[in-house]
Predict the 3D structure of the following.
Amino acid sequence: MTEAEYENPWIYLDRPFTSSDVHDYFGFVYRITNLTNERLYIGRKVFWFKRKPPGGKRKVKKESDWKKYYGSSDELKADVKALGKENFRREIISLHKTLGKTNFAETEALFKYNVLREKMEDGSPLYYNHNILGRYYRKDYFDK
C-alpha cells in the first residue's frame, strides 16, 4: 500500500492528503462526517511527535498516527467500529504550522460551528463533541 492509498484518506481541497503534502505543517483541524446519519465531529491532530526513544538521550521526530485517526470521541469511535470506516468522510478544514495555532483554530471552529448546541431534525445532538477545552460541556448548553 503506497502512502496515497491509505484507508479512507483525509480529504483536503477535494483530494486525498498524503505524507508528501505535510511539508512544514505541524497539525490540522478536521471534520469527520458519519455518512449514515450526517452526525459530525470536529477536532485537531498533529502530524509529528518529538519523543525520547527508550535508552536515548535526544528527542526524535516521529510521524503520528494521523492517517488512521478517527478522533478522541468514544461515541464516534464506537460508531466507526460498528458501521465501518467507509461510512465516514474525513476532511481537513485547515492546516497550521505550530501547536498553538492548531489548538487555537480547533477551539475557534468548535465555537463557530456551535458543536455543543446544534441539533439534528429529531432533536438529538448533531455533533459527537461533548465538550470544548474540558471546560464547556454539552450537558450544560444543549436544550433537549
User: Anything to note?
Assistant: The radius of gyration is 16 Å. Residues 3-113 form one domain.
